[in-house]
């Protein structure tokens, strides 16, 4: 069995990244031996389709389970179609998430936990700030 955990770094001590499609890294762990491989998420800066691209990437690695903070609707659908179980609500380190999963601490997610494009950043990236310019003063 292979478990993929979304992470902010490249090892078992990295924090879980709460985003799936736009996570920084994927850490794929064998929960029996705790051997792992880590690689950066190539779709992190995609203008669209990051969740689908991320889901296809981990599916191609032969994972059985994805552990993450949240998952959007497109990623959820793609992972589900590949028969990959999804556990959300993870926090702490990658190692913590694996241990929690092994201990039955996660239940399988039955739908998206965030809306489409949720990992793209806050209002500031779309000019929604409330700054008050000085008007040339």
Question: How would you describe this structure to a colleague?
Answer:
The chain has three helices and five strands; from the N terminus they run E-E-E-H-E-H-E-H. The chain is globular, with a radius of gyration of 16 Å. It has helices spanning 50-60, 73-81, 94-102; strands at 3-7, 25-29, 36-40, 65-67, 85-87. Strand 2 and strand 3 form a beta hairpin. Mean pLDDT is 87; it is low at 122-134. With 137 residues, it is an alpha/beta fold. Helix content is 21%, strand content 15%. The protein has a single domain, classed as Nucleotidyltransferase, domain 5, CATH 3.30.420.130. The longest helix has 11 residues, at 50-60. It has a five-stranded mixed β-sheet, sandwiched between helices. It starts with a strand and ends in a 35-residue tail after the last helix. Helix 1 packs parallel to helix 2. 34% of the residues are buried.
**Topology-level CATH name:** Nucleotidyltransferase, domain 5
| N-to-C span | 64 Å
Low-confidence stretches: 122-134
**Given this structure, which CATH class is correct?**
Alpha Beta
- Tell me the CATH architecture: 2-Layer Sandwich
The portion of residues forming beta strands comes to 15-25%
**CATH homologous superfamily title:** Dinitrogenase iron-molybdenum cofactor biosynthesis domain
Look at the helices and sheets and give the structural class.
alpha/beta
Number of E-state strands: 5
Major sheet characteristics: 5 strands, mixed
Number of domains: 1
Helices and strands, in order, run as EEEHEHEH
Globular, elongated, flat, extended or rod-shaped: what is the shape? globular
Q: Kindly provide the radius of gyration, computed on alpha-carbon positions and rounded to a whole number of angstroms.
A: 16 Å
């Amino acid at each position: 069995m292979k478990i993929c955990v979304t992470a902010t770094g490249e090892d078992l001590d990295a924090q879980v990244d709460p985003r799936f499609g736009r996570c920084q890294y994927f850490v794929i762990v064998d929960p029996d031996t705790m051997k792992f491989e880590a690689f950066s998420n190539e779709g992190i800066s995609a203008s669209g389709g990051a969740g689908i691209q991320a889901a296809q990437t981990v599916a191609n690695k032969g994972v059985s389970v994805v552990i993450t903070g949240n998952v959007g609707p497109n990623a959820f659908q793609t992972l589900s179609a590949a028969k990959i179980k999804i556990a959300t609500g993870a926090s702490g380190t990658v190692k913590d998430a694996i241990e929690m999963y092994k201990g039955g601490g996660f239940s399988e997610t039955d739908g998206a936990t965030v809306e489409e494009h949720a990992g793209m950043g806050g209002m500031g990236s779309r000019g929604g700030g409330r700054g008050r310019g000085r008007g040339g003063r």
